[in-house]
Amino acid sequence: MRKAFVIGHPIAHSRSPMIHGHWLEVLAIDGCYERIDVAPGDLANFVRQFRERGFAGGNVTIPHKEATLVLADRLDEAAELIGAVNTLWLDDDLIHGGNTDAIGFSANLDAAAYQWRDAESALVLGAGGAARAVVHALVQAGIRDIRLVNRTVMRAQELADRFGAGISAHGWHEVAELSRDAALVVNTTSLGMHGDGGSLMDVALLPDHAIVTDIVYVPLRTPLLAEAAARGLRTVDGLGMLLHQAVPGFERWFGHRPVVTTALRDIVVADLERHG
Length: 276
Ligand code: ATR
Hints:
Elements: E1 2-8, H1 16-26, E2 31-37, H2 43-49, E3 55-60, E4 74-75, H3 77-82, E5 87-91, E6 94-98, H4 101-112, E7 121-125, H5 129-140, E8 145-149, H6 153-163, E9 167-170, H7 175-179, E10 184-187, E11 211-214, H8 223-230, E12 234-236, H9 239-245, H10 247-254, H11 262-275
Parallel strand pairs: 1-2, 1-3, 4-6, 7-8, 7-10, 8-9, 10-11, 11-12
Antiparallel strand pairs: 3-5, 5-6
Bound molecules: 2'-monophosphoadenosine-5'-diphosphate (ATR).
């Protein structure tokens, strides 16, 4: 039986077991996917010894994504660029660490609003860990004008420098000006609402063809998405990113490429409605 894990601390909230469990069931694979709480002090031992415990690999979540970088024998390009590992697998007896968040972000938009790839400019709200994966995906998609807006402008500047030309760093006071020709807006901050209780941005300023997406999926319909939809803009929620980022790991551990279906989405949505 093939075995995979998700490690984090705490880990009870993770929805990954639901996703991989569903795929194991529909594909009738003799395998299991276990949730394991690993304290920071135990991370190195866990990563070095999962093979001996019979695991083919697994997912890594908060707070271990950055620390796992130095524990893998090999990193894929995305993990290196994003600076975090979310997937581990074995190959040639080596422990490989990868990051599938950018793939998940792109696949979600491909499925829901494929025109996003034609966007000439993108406005990214936030410059934390999640924003790094989003910027990597936008650069990979060939979007040449990426504007990062963050409370701490220095952090946005560091992110811009990390990914090179075509990326600019801004403070929130510039968001109105930057909105006028933004073809794609991505919220990567955890803010449902911004600071003083006002909206994150004024969606009325966006062009009519703008696509608005949020990587937050609790709630599924964030205030930004609700405002954008009310304004008649195309919106994409963040749940698809969670589902799509899980695909490459499952394929590596269990040897079958799973499909993100409406049935899977419905299962996770029902769980979100029950537990938030
Ligand atoms: P994640 O890995 O989810 O991206 P993070 O690295 O802590 O988490 O980043 C959180 C993001 O939300 C950052 O862009 C942060 O802005 P700062 O870099 O200025 O801290 C943004 N954020 C969080 N709380 C905020 C707040 N109250 N007002 C404005 N921005 C906020």
